[in-house]
């Protein structure tokens, strides 16, 4: 990065944060601070919901997924539009009618205080841990590109987001997200066009797709019924729908976004905006990774993308072995590249036999490359577990090497903007839930609005510091985006079960659903550590177990609190 | 539950009721899945 890149980064990030703080200065009433002024239109809500979900992990790690595994990950999002329709049609009208600050307040209305606390507690645990992971992602980028210390990067980015979220509350989050997502889209589009321009001039877009398909990178839809496969259309539609239903319908970081709209209509349209654009957006980001893969068939990629970690290991002990693997990798890549022209020519001339032969030869050479890379990953992973997450470095490595200055700054700013936008919504939600569902519910019930605003600011800052702490000591499994989804899937199913019982099963009371949720969460933990199934299925299992056990307990014990409180569906 | 007049109307030309909006959104998803399945088959 040069001075221009730093200028783009600092001016944009600090400018957006300062503007958000200035525009929302002086928020004193609780509703204004936690839900905003209630003037947001559908596009602001839609972009805010999108920015909350799409963290830096989405933009940093997903192209790496596309590079390594192709488009299959897009299936993870197939259930999201269906879930958003259910949230818009069922959940949203009830939240707005009851004028709740948090989703868990509704559980208190419908069941009782302990069930409300359980829902809020599961959210706080899950989102508090997830917040640590999301702050870790931009820190990796920034520490890599600037040569900063990782811990200093985590602390600086964490403190910036704490500052404007604490100062401006919900409106500051929505306002800054609008500009941050503009920066993100501009950056990703710029990367896409630069990438296209960097592909060999003779290669048409159809040739590019043919090469990607030939290496198995365009397998976007898998109809297999095998539950051990991580991404299939069925796990995406069913498991993904449960995950998204829980996330969009019951996770306060999302509920708070759409409850800030001017009306039910604006909230609904904001959600439908996401329902329409979520799948194409994820496809586009994965496609970037696939195109980078094709680009690197013609240019030698590093055997290990995190070059700083590789150089460090090469200087300590395993250097000879790593360099030998690098040479083996480069030789295989050279041979592979030699077969690509024949492959394309045969394809264009319609010579199937020659095409198959050239493709087989290129694939064989590529397999040797993959083997050398995997052995490198093994050595690096054995030395430092975090070093095994090399796919997270694919996109940033491409950006730093092949994008012009100015655009490098824009892309780094985009990652930073994505991190801050989702982090701000998380902190806002964690602070609100702690204030409304824990502090106001258990500690101090009848204080003035101003007191709760101060409490909310303090809790928001507290959770920001907790997130920084987790990020500093995070030891991440697999890559970042999967770690976040796995963590969510362990808790989300049970939380969704609580809400589905609340909305649809009027005869079940708080005591039955409370113990059912505890048993279901224990079951999910046991299954997670004993089965090897796709993590998306834990959303379905946790939810189904919670609903079924609630019904069984209510029928078996006949708890007297059934049907009490407010309202399921009218 | 009765929606306010402002909420009952979608404000979208040609899609005046919410069920219609939901059907169009679901069809858009089906179209996306179809296109992606086509892409998978077109470049095996």
Defining key terms:
heterodimer; A: 570 residues; Sodium/glucose cotransporter; globular; B: mainly alpha; 66% helix; 0% strand; rod-shaped
Overview of the structural elements:
- The complex is a heterodimer of chains A (570) and B (44).
- Chain A has 570 residues and is an all-alpha fold.
- Chain A has one domain (3-296, 400-557): Sodium/glucose cotransporter (Up-down Bundle), CATH 1.20.1730.10.
- Chain A contains 21 helices and no strands.
- Chain A has helices at 3-23, 30-35, 42-53, 56-69, 79-98, 103-110, 113-146, 150-198, 205-214, 233-250, 252-258, 264-298, 307-314, 319-349, 352-383, 394-402, 407-443, 449-472, 480-504, 510-530, 537-557.
- With 44 residues, chain B is mostly helical.
- In chain B, 66% of the residues lie in helices and 0% in strands.
- Chain B has helices at residues 5-8, 18-42.
- The radius of gyration of chain B is 16 Å and the shape is rod-shaped.
- Chains A and B meet through α5, α9 and α12 of A and α2 of B.
Global mean pLDDT of chain A: 87
- Number of extended strands of chain A: 0
Shape verdict of chain A: globular
- Helix content bin of chain A: over 70%
Could you give a short account of the major beta sheet of chain B? none
- Report how far the terminal alpha carbons of chain A are from each other: 58 Å
Quick one: how many beta strands of chain B? 0
SSE-based structural type of chain A: mainly alpha
Stretches with pLDDT under 50, minimum 5 residues of chain A: none
Which CATH first-tier class of chain A would you pick? Mainly Alpha
Identify the CATH homologous superfamily of chain A: Sodium/glucose cotransporter
What fraction, in percent, of the residue positions of chain B are helical?
Answer: 55-70%
Radius of gyration of chain A: 25 Å
Quaternary state, please?
Answer: heterodimer
Taking the alpha carbons of the first and last residues of chain B, their distance comes to 51 Å
Please report the number of helical segments of chain A.
21
- Our count of domains of chain A comes out at 1
Largest sheet of chain A: none
The unreliable regions of chain B are none
Give me the Rg of chain B, rounded.
16 Å
CATH architecture of chain A: Up-down Bundle
